[in-house]
Amino acid sequence: MARIPFLVACAVTASMLSAANAQTWTYSATSPETLSCDAKDLLFASWSYGHYTINNDVWSPCSGIPAGEQTIWANSNLDWGVSSNQPDTNGIKSYPHIGYAVNKTISSLNSLSAVVSASTPSGGAWESTFDIWAGNKAHEIMVWLNYTGTPDGCGNVKPISANWTSAGCAIPLQTNVPLSGGTWNVYVGTNGSNAVYSFLRTTKTDHTTVDVLAFMKYLKSRNYFDDAVIGEIQYGFEITSSPGGLRFASRNFTVTAE
C-alpha cells in the first residue's frame, strides 16, 4: 500500500540534472541506497508542475525496510519516469508517482477521468496503480492497471485483503466487475490506518483512460462511504523489488475533472 508522502520542496541542482544516456531532464532527484527516514528531502523529493506534483516517495525506510537507490525525473505531467534499484526482499519500497488534487465531493462531479500511457519492465515485483484518497484520507482506493502478480490475488505482489486462502492468496469480495471499459476483481481490507479498496484489472494494460468517478460511485453504491470528498488522485509505480535497476515511465498523463 502506498503511503501518504511527506512533501518536501527540492531545489534542482546541476548534479540532479545529469542522467543515464546523457539525457537532461527539467527536474530529477536521487535518493541513494540505505538512507534513513531522516533524509526526507531525498526520500520524498517532489516537484510541482501546474496542477500536478511529482514525488519520489521512497517511504520504506520510514517503516524500517531498507531501500535501494531511486531516481525520479520529469519534464512535465506528460513526460516523467523513474529508475529504481530495489532489493529482492519482502515489503514495498517506494511509490514514485504523480498527484492531482481534486478536493470535490462525488456528487459535485459530472466526470473525473485520467489518461494513462506507461512503459513498464518485464521483471521485478511491482504494480502500475492509482492511489485515490477520499473522506479526509479515511479511504484509499487503488486501481491496479498492470502488475506482476495475478488478478486472483496471488503472485509476488498482492492487494490488501481482509480474507486469505490457505495458500496465501488474497480473496476478492467481487469478481469480474465491469467498470471503465474493463473487468475488475475487488479486494477490501485495512492497513491499520485506513480502509483500502483494491481493483485489479483482469486484463492488464499500460494504456487506457480510467473513469475514476465510476469507481467512486461503485463504492458509494455499496455503502462503503457516502458522498465523500475526493482528495488527491495519485498515479505511479508501487515497487517491491527491481534488482539491477528497472525503469518505468509515464507519458501523456492528464486528469480531467468537471
TrEMBL record:
<keyword id="KW-0119">Carbohydrate metabolism</keyword>
<dbReference type="GO" id="GO:0016787">
    <property type="term" value="F:hydrolase activity"/>
</dbReference>
<keyword id="KW-0378">Hydrolase</keyword>
<dbReference type="Pfam" id="PF01670">
    <property type="entry name" value="Glyco_hydro_12"/>
</dbReference>
<dbReference type="InterPro" id="IPR013319">
    <property type="entry name" value="GH11/12"/>
</dbReference>
<keyword id="KW-0326">Glycosidase</keyword>
<comment type="similarity">
    <text>Belongs to the glycosyl hydrolase 12 (cellulase H) family.</text>
</comment>
<feature type="signal peptide">
    <location>
        <begin position="1"/>
        <end position="22"/>
    </location>
</feature>
<dbReference type="InterPro" id="IPR002594">
    <property type="entry name" value="GH12"/>
</dbReference>
<keyword id="KW-0732">Signal</keyword>
<keyword id="KW-0624">Polysaccharide degradation</keyword>
<dbReference type="InterPro" id="IPR013320">
    <property type="entry name" value="ConA-like_dom_sf"/>
</dbReference>
<protein>
    <submittedName>
        <fullName>Glycosyl hydrolase</fullName>
    </submittedName>
</protein>
